[in-house]
Amino acid sequence: MPVLNCQIPPNILQTDGVSPHITITLVDKKNKGSIMDQTQHTSERGLGMSTVRLLVGTRKGAFILSSNEQRKEWAVEGPLFAGWEIYHFTGTPADPNRLYASQSNAWFGQIIQRSNNGGKTWETVGNEFSYEGTPGTHKWYDGSQHPWEFKRVWHLEPSLTNPDSLYAGVEDAALFHTGDGGKTWQELSGLRSVKGDLWQPGAGGMCLHTIVLSPHDPNRIFVAISAAGAFRTDDGGKSWQPVNRGLKSEYELPDSAAEVGHCVHSIAMHPSRPQVLFMQKHWDVMRTDDSGESWHEISGNLPSDFGFPIAVHAHEPETVYVVPITSDSHHFPPEGKLRVYRTRSGGNEWEALTTGLPQSNCYVNVLRNALAVDTLESCGVYFGTTGGQVYGSADSGDTWMPIVHDLPPVLSVEAQIVP
Asked: Count of alpha carbons within 13 Å of 59, Cβ hemisphere only?
């Protein structure tokens, strides 16, 4: 098997927004030679086709991984914002060179960064996230009431049509929107009015971590909160309803079928079928065919139905990916084997995808925002681990290769196709 050799420039640990480049060479030990030698910056290689770009947020900075449509050679740029936690790093569908990053630090607080040129330069935009009115209280770990306190931005979701329109999911759980490219933020406070006093933090905090925009109805938005559940608005965020019917949380809630309080880890949608959503819950993999009005379990033959991320194939709406983790107390793959599972039938029947992934002594986790797909004809699938590895598949998960390893723990991965 080829192995990865990384040549790291001496200025790798810079702290500004200008990114160094790492050269990756795949070396075939058996044949004593380089089978893929990449020695130039992405912009110099003359790819001639679209560029695949992975935006990777980690515990100690952000990284941009770039390749051509073959996805065999990758350039690595970073770290951007070295030393800062980048909870989410994403680009806008309407303008792939408009990038946003959520930069967080326990000492220095929350910063939103924006780039207009694909990450070459950055500017700090608005960081004022104020709850509307009197925030009130929510349930604390011990069941007592606790005041709402802003901590950080977990997720950024750009509009499908306007690069200046962006949603932010935050901790303590709330949804904010900007219409001016991040300069100012307004809370969509109707969400917290849906029994917010009963919401409670999960192990990672009380965070709004997933935002799904309907591609056919700009007024319909789904969000997921740990630990409150899934919610939907049909009027652009003015009013909300919980969409948790069918979820069971017998180990976490006194009423296992409560309207709110479920620990939803992630939800995903295929744009061709906006009424169908898939969910990775604290335990259980779920599906709805009626926009969240009812859910049913599709865990089937998975070795564990605990996990964090879930994703849908770009062209096959019944093909879904999950990464099972042993349990809520053992955040590593069952049997120490890193396996992505895929269903091609919308659930219940799952196959392990292992070619190119470590199948022994692997004890990493894959977090909720760290699994992504691209939209090329041969759909690419990518994920990052808490061990700092980023793996990629150019054939819908049939085979995998390590794109880069030894990064800080990976918090998020997003895939872009740049013309």
From this structure: 12
Instruction: Give the mean pLDDT of 250-258.
Output: 78
Q: If pLDDT is split at 50, 70 and 90, which confidence band does 26 have?
A: very low
Tokens found for residue 406: 């030894």
- Exposed e or buried b per residue across 246-256, where buried means at least 16 C-beta atoms within 10 angstroms of its C-beta: bbbbeebbeee
The pTM assigned to this predicted structure is 0.88
In this structure, are residues 284 and 242 in contact, taking their beta carbons and an 8 Å threshold?
no
Which of left, alpha, beta for 141 (phi over 0: left; psi -120 to 50: alpha)? alpha
Q: Which token pair is 45?
A: 């290689």
pLDDT grade, residue 348 (50/70/90)?
Answer: very high
Under the banding of pLDDT at 50, 70 and 90, the label for residue 253 is: confident
- What radius of gyration do the chain's Cα atoms show? 21
pLDDT tens for 40-56 read: 333 333 335 899 999 99
Element housing 346 (H / E): none
Q: Considering only CA atoms, which of 91, 114, 96, 102 is closest in space to residue 181? A: 114
Q: What is the largest CA-CA distance in the chain?
A: 68
Q: Are 51 and 68 in contact (CB under 8 A)?
A: yes
Which of 154, 151, 149 minimizes the C-alpha distance to 101?
154
Looking up tokens 């797909």, which residue turns up? 373
Confidence tier at 251 by pLDDT (50, 70, 90): confident
Distances (CA, A) of 324 to 336, 339, 372: 11, 7, 16
Q: How far apart are the first and last CA of the chain?
A: 32
Rounded CA separation 103/43 (Å): 26
Burial class (CB in 10 A: 0-12, 13-18, 19+), 321: buried
Question: With the C-alpha atoms ordered 178, 228, 279, 85, is the resulting torsion angle positive or negative?
Answer: positive
Q: Which residues of 199-218 are buried (b: 16+ CB within 10 A; e: fewer)?
A: bbbbebebbbbbbbbbeeee
- Structure confidence at residue 106 as a pLDDT band (50, 70, 90): confident
